[in-house]
Design a protein that fits this description.
- The complex is a heterodimer of chains A (379) and B (89).
- By secondary structure, chain A is an all-beta fold.
- Chain A contains 1 helix and 28 strands.
- Chain A has a single domain (5-376), classed as 7 Propeller (Methylamine Dehydrogenase, Chain H), CATH 2.130.10.10.
- In chain A, the strands form 7 sheets. Chain A has a 4-stranded antiparallel beta sheet with strand order 3-2-1-28, with no helix packed on it.
- In chain A, a hairpin with a 7-residue loop joins strand 4 and strand 5.
- Chain B has one domain (2-84): Ubiquitin-like (UB roll) (Roll).
- By secondary structure, chain B is an alpha+beta fold.
- Chain B has one helix at residues 26-36, and strands at 2-6, 18-21, 55-59, 62-63, 79-84.
- Chain B is built from 1 helix and 5 strands.
- Chain B starts with a strand and ends in a 5-residue tail after the last strand.
- The chains are: A mainly beta (379), B alpha+beta (89).
- Chains A and B meet through loops of A and loops of B.
Chain lengths: 379, 89
């Protein structure tokens, strides 16, 4: 008998955040606390090291980027730390009274992704922001240190934003070694660090940049999302502007896997813990940026057989759905739950690794992100 | 002293909507507001010191946001409105 769990879907939208609660069956849902009303929430994440702690990357059109934390499963949110500086974690240099202090040249823009560190570093968080900025906190978000090897990278002069901005949206940590980090930057590509962020190596070999004169540059690829395989932390699945890819060697080289699907454009990918060797992609029309052929499409990649399986029939959820880079996630239950949020506010759930699907009976605002937290019942 | 009126949406960061403050420039005024109410930091202006895109500062009814901005000189008796512009959707 499966253990009883409380499953919470953290939904970041164009107009606020929502916590959606259910149980291990993942078939009935209660839309619980709403927060950040009227404000863009680009990403939310639960901190598995501190049950009940949720973080939200909030981008207020009026007041700028804000980081919020809840310590009670999203019932109440508080702004933490200071919205981030481009070059310092303290007061703006131009206000510190010292005329010799150089001023930052640009403000931090939208916040894109918050990633909790490994259990061995219980107070560490990473945060990716626009324009192509990476920060680390070692005090659970009270203060943030810029990672200068990215934020002052000599190649920045050639880095351009993508359509969503100069987002640093993907942050992955090798579960075996907290010094091995991977990041994804829109219109720049992926990088790997082996030394905790002190130095970075571009890792885009084999990924096509169809929008550039040089189709296979060292950087310039527009990565949309990357996840690690749940059973093999050296294997990664990548949804790029230029298609769907897999790497089996810590991103040293990539192999395109999406060509059998025809148009293999999309923004998001997930790899559930209970489904090692499998990845799930939401395939979009590369021009229209909504699901092609008039229905929601989720495709399963089996990395062992190297075959695709289409999970949804054309009649399941007809329509043209947009799904953004944080729009799909998988939980850690067995069988895996897969969650897909759309830019028209539908939240689709599969409780059985894609065999069956249902829709949360609530019309959300445009969904930017979904993430999921599983805790023992009663918490 | 200046008659300062703040957007009611700023109340979540601490300040009341009306107050009297002495300051000789918009920048000086904002410095003082942020000292009194630290959670206002980076809400009205970003970390480079510029007014955020959708913040408007009026001096005696004149919008200075896109002209002299934070460097606008102030003198006692003036009315300052710090509001958000019509935007969003």
């Amino acid at each position: 008998m499966a253990p009883k769990n409380t499953v919470r879907i953290l939904v970041g939208t164009r107009k606020g955040s929502y916590i959606v609660e259910g149980d291990s069956k993942r078939k009935s849902w209660k839309v619980g606390p709403a927060g950040h009303e009227g404000t863009d929430v680009y990403h939310m994440v639960a901190d598995p090291r501190h049950p009940g702690d949720f973080y939200a990357a909030v981008n207020s059109w009026m007041w700028g980027p804000l980081v919020y934390r809840s310590t009670n499963y999203g019932k109440k949110w508080s702004e933490i730390g200071t919205p981030l500086m481009a070059s310092t974690k303290t007061r703006p240099p131009r206000f510190d009274g010292n005329p010799d202090t150089p001023a930052p040249v640009y403000p931090v823009g939208n916040l894109w992704h918050i990633e909790p560190g490994l259990p061995s570093e219980p107070n560490t968080l990473y945060l990716g922001a626009d324009p192509h900025l990476l920060f680390r906190s070692t005090d659970r978000g009270s203060t943030w240190d810029p990672i200068d090897a990215i934020n002052k990278h000599p190649g920045r002069k050639n880095w351009a934003p993508g359509a969503g901005g100069a987002c640093l949206h993907t942050i992955l940590i090798d579960p075996r070694d907290p010094r091995r980090l991977y990041i994804g930057l829109s219109a720049v590509g992926t990088f790997r660090s082996e030394d905790g962020g002190k130095s970075w190596k571009p890792t885009n070999k084999g990924v096509e940049a169809p929008f550039l004169p040089n189709k296979f540059p060292e950087t310039g690829q527009c990565v949309h999302d990357v996840v690690a395989d749940s059973a093999n932390p050296d294997t990664f699945y990548r949804q790029d502007h230029g298609g769907m890819y897999v790497s089996h060697d810590r991103m040293e080289k990539w192999v395109r896997i999406g060509k059998p699907l025809g148009d293999d454009f999309g923004f998001t990918v997930a790899s559930p813990r209970a489904s090692p060797g499998k990845a799930y992609f939401v395939r979009l029309d590369g021009m229209a940026r909504v699901t092609g052929e008039g229905h929601l499409q989720v495709h399963e990649w089996n990395d062992k057989t190297r075959k695709w399986r289409k999970l949804l029939s054309p009649t399941a959820f007809p329509g043209h759905f947009g799904v953004q880079r944080e729009g799909m996630v998988a939980d850690d239950l067995d069988p895996a739950g897969i969650y897909v949020g759309t830019t028209t506010g539908q939240l689709f759930v599969s409780p059985d690794a894609g065999k069956s699907w249902n829709k949360v009976p609530f019309q959300f605002p445009a969904i930017h992100s979904v993430s999921v937290a599983t805790t023992r019942s009663g918490k | 002293m200046l008659e300062v009126h703040l957007d009611s949406w700023l109340r979540e960061f601490g300040p009341p909507t009306h107050m009297k403050i002495g300051a000789d420039s918009v920048e000086h005024l904002l410095d003082q507001l942020e000292t009194r109410y630290p959670r206002l930091r980076f809400k009205i202006r970003d970390e480079t010191g510029h007014l955020r895109r959708y913040v408007r500062v009026f001096v005696d009814g004149e919008d200075v946001s896109g002209t002299t901005g934070v460097e606008t000189p102030l003198k006692g008796g003036q009315a300052i409105d710090i509001l958000h512009s019509i935007a969003g959707g």
